Amino acid sequence: MVDPPGGSVQQTEWAPSIAGIAGWGTAGVLMAIGCVTLVTDAPGRVLTGIAAAGLILFAAASWRARPKLAITGDGLQVRGWWRTQLLRRPDIKIIRITEFRRIGRKMRLLEIEAVDGRLLIFSRWDLGADPLDALDALTAAGYAGT
Q1: Fewest beta carbons less than 10 Å away: which of 12, 31, 73, 116?
Q2: Rounded mean pLDDT of 20-35?
Q3: Which of 57, 26, 47 is nearest to 39 (CA)?
Q4: What's the pTM value of the predicted model, to 2 decimals?
């Protein structure tokens, strides 16, 4: 945790919520059990099995990518499903929030654009918090803003 000049402790890492990941994993396991015990037709069993495997894989990969974004002493650490990237201050071109309406709801995404052209996008699911809160912490740490 970073202690900014105001005295309050600022969050320094963001990840999908443990309860959310457990929920998707549990849904996948229950769907797999239902696939084996309840579904009687072959096409339904195949489709249900694929969906169950997808949910379990999504939960496992989301768990592996925790924390998704973290402020470290070396720079911003971004974890993905396969690798971890480190973005230092000179590597970051801009950090911004993108807002749009989707299905009657306002959606916010945190975008980190790197100098080399990479665009990293984080949703509320990825961060486990409002992207505005993450932007505030990144600004307080000196990564965003002027």
Answers
A1: 73
A2: 96
A3: 47
A4: 0.79
92 lies in a domain?
A: yes
Cα separation, 100 vs 106, whole angstroms: 6
Residue 55: strand pairing partners: none
pLDDT in the model for residue 9: 54
Environment class of 53 (CB within 10 Å of its CB; exposed 0-12, middle 13-18, buried 19+): middle
Give the pLDDT score at 102: 83
Phi and psi (nearest 5°) for 77?
-100, 125
Residue 107 dihedral angles phi and psi, to the nearest 5°: -110, 140
Domain total in the chain: 2
Distance of alpha carbon 30 from alpha carbon 73, whole angstroms: 42
Domain that residue 112 falls in: 68-140
Check whether 2 has a pLDDT greater than 90: no
Same domain, 79 and 125: yes
